[in-house]
Amino acid sequence: MALDTRRVAVVGAGMVGLSTAWFLQEHGADVTVFDRDDVAAGASWGNAGWLTPGLATPLPEPAVLSYGIRAVLSPSSPVYVPPSASPRLLRFLAGFALNSTEAKWRRAMESLVPINGRALPSFDALIEGGVKAETNEAGSFLAAYRTAGERTALLEEIEHIRAAGQKLEYEALSGDEARAVEPALSDEIGAAVVLRGQRFINPGRFVHALADSVLDRGGKIRTGEAVTDIRDESGGAAVRTAGGDLEPFDTVVIASGVWLGDLARRFGVRALVQAGRGYSFSVPMERVPDNPVYLPSQRVACTPLGDRLRVAGMMEFRRPDAPLDARRIRAIVEAARPLLRGADLDARQDEWVGSRPCTRDGLPLIGATRSPRVFAAGGHGMWGITLGPATGRLLAGQIVTGDRPPELAPFSPLR
Question: What is the pTM of this model?
């Protein structure tokens, strides 16, 4: 039954929340979006902007365990855990480690394949529906390595991805072949993999265009209003903002990123959502690459955004409100410097840190809670941009019809 006159509150104005709001509007819902800060103020702004369903894999993987304790305690490690980790973080990391096995990764990967297939068509639906933004085809999405030996891990992972049912076209290149495709790679690059069929966006610009479309279609976006409480009441739900009264709605969607658990816990959502903080900055180039470049061994992602290159990296498990740590920026700079040609890494702008919402099993939390009026949408880890529109499209359908799409079955927030 259509929600022609129903009022829906969406908590969170990032890619996931705004996509859910937009697709709910497609079904006739009257939506109000709340955000503690602003549109795209969290992980949706400064990320690499990759639309790479071919690489949307579970974050807990066997390779993570190979870092070892000494590595993750190093400030220069691409995966960093502070020595003073809280008991909550230690519980998260213990569960994360238990899920970093080949068997569990394979099962999680198989769970992601169906929603990955919805990713790019859902972006197309937004644009065709009036969102004034664009996606860029990545003619050559390059993953570059110093040696062919280093590349072996990615080639093996690709075969595992394909074995799970994910379509992914690729070609192995030599260093010279990679530089012929992308001259910004230095002479230290000795091997590469080029991936086909992927895209990229300017994430901040796209999310703001999505917000504009929600507003143009009659929605409301209330920024600077942190939702502090959600109530399941007779005949509906209600939200309370800081310093405000309870405001009635028919349905509430919690898409508040790393703060999802704070609001969803009372509705049976027990999964820990941990901030996996990423860092980025932009630099001028002698020649900005036409397409994204990935340095997997260094875990550094590079994306062309206008006349500058965005350089992003790190998985820092710390509290989301911790200040930017300049050591992480320096670690990304020193990891990328030998491998990029013509990048002025000392002329950085837009230094940023944002918190990706990560779960212990690497799968998002999408769907109904114990309350029939309260839904969750989050925990996508590094893939909130890639999977945000597909999440919103599928969840909106579930909210309206009451039927859970099969693509969302593995992602129950109550698991």
Answer: 0.95
